[in-house]
Design a protein that fits this description.
Length: 305
């Protein structure tokens, strides 16, 4: 009887892990995850932001300082008495309204044509059947790898020979091709559902109707990204407008700053130079500030097909 009772007695259960130890382990893992997120994500982001933003902030503050505060041996972080005298002097030396009008006109017309060409070219490369499509796309990829400075001399010889020096069309024409916009839009168009376009084709919609009514509306973020990048590049373009224009009345804003070049040897004129640079940069920063979400959405949309 005693032997039977001994064999039927259940084995003692294994001791459970203490709950406080498991909680401490989970808290430790959460702290490690937070630390890795800060070191691997936020810290590089903050450093990159400071590297980009601090020179711009220093330029804006410098445009509000006096010449003595700018060239002082001791660093003056903030202007003692902020003043807009540098902006007034820069406006007196350079016709900023005329330069602003030239930049706006060239940017809107040139950028608009480039965006339209990028949309239609990308649509043709994806949805239109024609020979040598892959060869043409390979040529576009090659154009992305060629620096634009290579074409400066041929473009100048051609445009100047046609009488395009110191003209708006001479500034706009050579840059109408946009390999970046065509490539980005093509990659996005490849991610669109083919069933929608096939249904529209069965309903009798032509290529233009499909492009305007279907492809463009559902591709708005990507098109907005291409448009913004194109407009910013057109606004900031410096080398080609500098080469093709010599008349002060035809210069764009970045080129117009060269009219202040006679001030570079005078250290007391640094606030004037900074004020001119701020006038060029601020419009682009304002546009980017309001439309940055469209840029991010357009660059990430279609990244995973």
């Amino acid at each position: 009887m005693s032997a039977t009772l001994l064999t039927e007695r259940p084995a003692p259960a294994a001791p459970a892990a203490p709950e406080p130890r498991r909680g401490r382990r989970r808290a430790g893992l959460e702290r490690e995850s937070t630390a890795s997120m800060v070191l691997g994500g936020y810290l590089p982001l903050v450093l990159a932001t400071l590297i980009i933003a601090l020179p711009l902030l220093w330029m804006v503050l410098g445009s509000l300082k006096t010449s003595g505060e700018v060239i002082s041996r001791d660093i003056v972080w903030l202007p003692g008495s902020p003043s807009l005298d540098a902006y007034a002097e820069a406006s007196r030396r350079v016709d900023f309204p005329r330069l602003f009008w030239n930049s706006t006109l060239v940017t809107l017309i040139g950028g608009g044509i480039k965006v339209i060409l990028a949309i239609t070219t990308a649509y043709a490369l994806v949805f239109v059947r024609f020979p040598f499509k892959r060869v043409i796309f390979a040529g576009i990829l090659v154009a992305l790898m060629v620096p634009p400075q290579v074409s400066l001399l041929p473009n100048y010889v051609l445009i100047a020979g046609l009488g395009g020096a110191n003209t708006y069309w001479g500034i706009i024409l050579p840059g109408l091709g946009t390999a970046f916009g065509t490539f980005l839009l093509r990659q996005h168009f490849l991610s669109l559902p083919a069933e929608i376009l096939e249904a529209a084709e069965l309903d009798g919609a032509g290529h233009l109707r499909r492009l305007v009514s279907i492809v463009v509306p559902i591709s708005t973020p990507t098109i907005a990204t291409v448009a913004l990048v194109t407009l910013v590049n057109e606004w900031n373009d410096y080398i080609w407008p500098l080469i093709i224009t010599s008349d002060d009345q035809m210069m764009t804003l970045p080129v117009g700053l060269t009219l202040l070049k006679n001030l570079e040897g005078d250290p007391s004129s640094y606030p004037i130079l900074m004020a001119g640079a701020v006038v060029v940069i601020v419009p682009v920063l304002i546009v980017f500030m309001f439309l940055q979400r469209s840029i991010v959405a357009g660059l990430t949309q279609g990244a995973v097909k």
